[in-house]
Amino acid sequence: MANGRGGSATAASPDDPPNADAAAIDAAKRALRREAQACRAEAHARDGATAGPLLRDRFLAAIEPPAGAVVSGFVPIRDEIDVMPLLAALAERGHPCALPVVAGPRQPLDFLAWAPGDPLRPGPFDVPIPAPTAARRRPELLLVPMLAFDGRGRRIGYGAGFYDATLALLRRDGPVLAVGVAFAGQQVDAIPVEPHDQPLDWIVTERSAWRVER
Description:
Rossmann fold; single chain; two-stranded antiparallel ribbon
């Protein structure tokens, strides 16, 4: 399976029979995560300095959130793509912003109000989060980090299940737009699919943006 950079990865296809062995899918995801981390590190080393503003421009040219829609972003850790230029631009356009906070294992994320320049403190997994006094918000658009993704809007993250649980809950309650963001070099041909996996609505990289067809 091509990884978008001329390499290969081994993973089950989303078109595999529904009775595909769950253990095999889990093993395929673990293998794909290892390769995806190396791909992301390479993309960050090559394009990290310029990717944030390019991602911002791709997003703004393709997606216009409803006026006043609450947008959830994330503080990039390790070699994740930098969404801070995009969050700053959306805040300037009048969108309230929020950052995710881990509530518990495989539990939906909480979201605390945040604006560019607000102080942050260490949270679970050493991810910076807003002050505990920040107001809780329900996002209507989520910028979703990814280790790898495919053109059908499937993604894998670190395996904790936070965003799948969050999107499942939010989608039961009302409209929400899930926008996967990553380096273009993190794309693969197909992501292994499990019943709890939540698809994305859009994918945006430093090179392109597209609505997922279903």
